[in-house]
Amino acid sequence: MKRVLVVVLAIVASAALIGLLLYGLGSREEDLSIEQALARGERPAAPSRELAVLGERGTRSIAELRGQVVVLNFWASWCGPCKVEAPVLDRAQKRLQRDGTGTVLGVTRDDATPDSLKFVRDFSVTYPSVRDVDTKLARDYGSTKVPETFVIDARGRIADALRGQITQQRLDEALSKALQ
Amino acid sequence: MRRTVLLLALAAALLAPPTAVAQRPSLPDIENEVMCVSCEIPLNIAESAQADQQRDLIRTLIAQGASKKQIKAMLVTEYGEDVLALPDDSGFGITAYAIPLALGALLAGGLIVLLPRWRRRTPAGIAEQDAPGLSDAESSRLDNELARYER
User: How far apart are CA A161 and CA A178, in angstroms?
Assistant: First the structure.
């Protein structure tokens, strides 16, 4: 009886360790479930969290922007491609605001507030940003790098996912999809 | 009395500056204990633009006279809990230290209980299996062989 108990305990401990190892390996893999859903012609619901607004008091979430198209852009001040795409995003912001159809919402990650604010000043960014300090929102979107952009339609669903640096043409295509 | 007070004040003034300097953290001191959050490696070996910005922030905080604890708290505010190379030694973070210790104690306890049993069981089992009985003829032959060898 004792021997059976020892064997059972050993099996449980081994299974727990293997499970932990698999979890550790799995959590480092890139999550492409959004792309897979988009490829099937689906529009997955856009994850939302209340996050602190950069440089201001208060919080903002994607959920409260329902009814508008949202260009959600993960960025950091130390990221080279983020600097290149900032003017593209700013043009989109001006257009969306003029038409009253939506907004660009920046999300900073792995970035200190003074550095993010300096980026906003240096690149004359006019769209608001929130701070994803624990990268929880980024993880909800399967985002592990910067820059990454998700275009969300007025019903709060992801219409397109753009991993890496965006171009004007690619963003226009994604916005057309979201505005349909 | 007045002289004693003056001497004590002088001693305090002489002792105070080195103490303050000794408590002041340095960049390598903190780099060892925090992570470069975008590279997921310790900051002291990280080479990236983000790591450089993180070092600049630490230098600024040191220059402002912040203590090591305050600097680490500020880094957590700016970069999240993942910036800490070592988990917090209070609250839920203590499980990171407690679980390996508990597992080690469990393993050691298991070995202390089970090893003597295995050691006791093994020689007896072997002795029974490896000692087949000798027939009279074989015993006699063995005695003869041994006697001849001893001559």
Answer: 11
Q: Which residues of A touch B77 (CB under 8 A)?
A: 133
Is any Cβ of chain B less than 8 angstroms from the Cβ of A82?
Answer: no
Task: Note the pTM of the prediction, 2 decimals.
Answer: 0.72
Contact status of A144 with chain B (Cβ, < 8 Å): no
Chain-chain contact of A112 with B48 (C-beta, under 8 angstroms): no
pLDDT by position in tens, chain A (length 180): 667 777 777 777 777 777 766 766 665 567 889 999 999 999 999 999 999 999 999 999 999 999 999 999 999 999 999 999 999 999 999 999 999 999 999 999 999 999 999 999 999 999 999 999 999 999 999 999 999 999 999 999 999 999 999 999 999 999 999 998
* Residues of chain B contacting residue A110, judged by C-beta atoms under 8 Å apart: 37-38, 50, 79
State the CB neighbour count (10 A cutoff) for residue B91: 8
Contact B84, B76 (CB under 8 A): yes
Structural domain includes residue B49: yes
Q: ipTM value of the model? A: 0.81
A30 contacts chain B (CB < 8 A): no
CA distance B72 to B33: 9
B50, B81, B82 ranked by CB distance to A76: nearest = B50
As a three-state string, the secondary structure of A61-90 is CCHHHCCCEEEEEEECCCCHHHHHHHHHHH
Q: Which CATH number fits domain A33-179: 3.40.50.2000, 3.40.30.10, 3.40.1080.10, 3.30.70.120?
A: 3.40.30.10
**Disruptive mutation site among B34, B35, B36, B37 for chain A (greatest number of A CBs within 10 Å):** B37
